[in-house]
Amino acid sequence: MSGGLVPDPTAPLTPSGNLRRRQIVSRVAEVVATGAAVIAIAALVIVIWTVVSRGASAISLDFLFTGYPTGVGPMLLGTVVIALVATAIAMPIGVLVALFITEYSGAKGARTMKLTLDLLNGLPSIILGLFAFVFIVAAQEKQTAFAGSVALAIIELPLIARGSQEVLQLVPGNLREASDALGIARWRSTLTVVLPSALGGIVTSTILAVARAAGETAPLILTTSAFDPNSFSINPFEALPNVPTWIYKVSEEGNPNGYAEAWGMSLILVSIILFASLGARALLARSKRKLSS
Amino acid sequence: MTQAVPSRIRVQPKAGAMPPAVTETTVEMQPLVAPELVFDSRGVSIFYGAKQALAAVNLGIRRGQITALIGPSGCGKTTFLRSLNRMNDSVASFRIEGSILYHGHDIYGSNVDRVEVRRRIGMVFQKPNPFPKSIYDNVAWAPRNLGLRRGLDERVEEALRGAALWDEVKDRLKDSALGLSGGQQQRLCIARAIAIEPDVLLLDEPASALDPIATGAIEDLMHSLKGRFTIVIVTHNMQQAARVADRTAFFSLETSGEKPVGSLIEVDETEKIFANPRDPRTRDYVSGRFG
Predict the structure, then answer these.
(1) Which CATH superfamily is domain B36-126+199-286 in?
(2) What pLDDT does A10 receive?
(3) Is there a contact between A179 and A90 (Cβ–Cβ < 8 Å)?
């Protein structure tokens, strides 16, 4: 019995054979993985802490609501306009793409569309900026916020479409069956049964997409960076002031005041994005729970 | 089709002033001399891909009656039921041979619109599937989408009365249907189906997810709907078939060739099927000697 693979069943239940060594290896692996997790958390905490500690002193009512040089009101307003126009373009298309995947395409078409969206999502934003620059800015020979919105819309589209599609897929198939059995054409049931059930999830994926797009800088540098920092304009067909390019501009100047301003704007941007993401995720979890219960 | 679908739901001008009209339709049933067939299934074989689910079913469904389809699991009775209103069309590999005539029209004819088929042939499923909407909107949804907006309140009330649910929900029509019990949800699904005045109701094991009391309520409801609608019900529960059905069709798995295929063994008056079946396989099944 002794020395064989099967230990003596009456021996005390302490580690035998190479179990001690295997336990050390798995302990080391656990410590390393935990360390990596701590690094990830630290990265987020340090960035946020830096932004808050350096930006907080710049924040004031004047900073939020007046123009250059005392405040960044025009940039905030411009960013809101650019994001709204981008979302107005991306949301209807994104939701329709999601509906195509879940209601019409069939398995093969769905795979193709999901891959397309994931590839689109992986495109570097500078490429999309270049695209908008060549086809809109260069063609019109003028920078416009609209060109920036188009680039941001391409960034938002796959996020909205994929997020909506995942929620639409959670809408129980037996609801579609129920409306089919009542002799109602598919589009009517899609519109009045399927979409309302998934509405919470669609809205939150849109918010997440907006939060992601609002901080994108590269496309805006190419499309809407030559602006008057003192103009409270909401006309998307001219170059509008916006937060990301202004952060880039003032921090490039090597001027201490510029840095303070950049940190202040960063704080505003980061807070908006963080709160939107957290809120949207909570909403999303809630509507998914509602659908799967 | 020139024949108008007769209105079976009477709209009462002052519905609140009258007693519920749930049972009055049952007395209108007259014995028919030559039974009129709503469905006439001729040599129907159904395949899912290479697998044959049903072989050469010849079955007539008589107007105004309740026909029960019974048989062991996998014998194709639900498949047959779902082929009556083309609910199988969404299954990619589904294929049907033979013909199913509905009032003389081939259900699978080339000019037949399946949305129109389902508008006339309603269906209630095994698991209650109310929409995540209010009780009122569940019933009003289909009429609204079909353009039947006039007298919608009366129509909803009449459908809920028809499904024996009105008294339980009349004070909370705006509440979510998902707050109802399973049995109430299933009766709501029946109300939803009859609100558009279909010709036929297909019930796919409507009580299998319900407790005995709720099951009893559904069975009472079926008796009250008999005559107004032609009803086809699939059930695992033989006692249920014996209690509710005028005629009963027994399906079973028959091995012809190498693989077992669902087949119709026998169809007759329900009493005959349970008391004195012609086929020994039916006798074995109804007496519990099956398998």
Answers:
(1) P-loop containing nucleotide triphosphate hydrolases (3.40.50.300)
(2) 85
(3) no
Query: Which residues on chain A are in Cβ contact (under 8 Å) with B85?
Result: 181
Which residue type is seen at A189? S
Q: For residue B7, which amino acid is it?
A: S
> How close does chain B come to A114, measured CA to CA in Å?
21
Measure the CA–CA gap between A14 and A125, rounded to whole angstroms.
Answer: 58
Domain boundaries of chain B, sorted by first residue: 36-126+199-286
Confidence grade of residue B16 (pLDDT, cut at 50, 70, 90): very low
- The more confidently predicted of residues B33 and A155 is A155
CB B220 within 8 A of CB B163: no
How far apart, in whole angstroms, are the C-alpha atoms of residue A90 and residue A155?
Answer: 9
Instruction: For residue B34, name the pLDDT band (cuts at 50, 70, 90).
Output: low
**Among A106, A136, A109, which Cα is nearest to A219's?**
A136
> To the nearest whole angstrom, how far is the Cα of B113 from the nearest Cα of chain A?
10
| Max mean pLDDT range (A85-94, B158-167, B254-263) | A85-94
3-state secondary structure of B70: strand
Query: What local confidence, expressed as pLDDT, does residue B287 receive?
Result: 85
Residues B177, B135: Cα–Cα separation, whole Å: 5
- What are the sequence ranges of the domains in chain A? 59-292
Type of residue found at B146: L
CA distance B186 to chain A (A): 12
Identify which of B256, B212, B202, B215 has the alpha carbon closest to the alpha carbon of residue B67. B202
B200 in Cβ contact with B229 (< 8 Å): yes
CB contacts of B119 in chain A (<8 Å) are: 182-184
pLDDT at B15: 44
In chain B, which residues have their Cβ closer than 8 Å to the Cβ of A174?
A: 125, 127, 129
CB contact under 8 A, B119 and A183: yes
Q: Which residues of B touch A185 (CB under 8 A)?
A: 115
Q: How far apart are CA A153 and CA A155, in angstroms?
A: 5
Query: Is residue A125 helix, strand or coil?
Result: helix
| pLDDT attached to residue B25 | 44
Cα four-point dihedral sign A215, A220, A224, A229:
positive
ipTM: 0.77
Contact A159, A117 (CB under 8 A): no
Element (H, E) at B215: helix B212-225
Minimal Cβ distance to B129: which of A106, A175, A183: A175
Residue A143: closest CA among A241, A230, A69, A68:
A241
The answer to whether B152 and B140 have CB atoms below 8 angstroms apart is yes
Q: In this model, does residue B260 exceed pLDDT 70?
A: yes
Does residue B26 register a pLDDT over 70? no
How far is residue A166's CA from residue A284's CA, in Å, rounded to a whole number?
11
Supply the pLDDT for residue A6.
Answer: 64
CB contact under 8 A, B129 and A193: no
Structurally, at CATH architecture level, domain A59-292 sits in: Orthogonal Bundle (1.10)
**DSSP class of A137:** I
Q: Cβ contact (<8 Å) for A181 and B115?
A: no
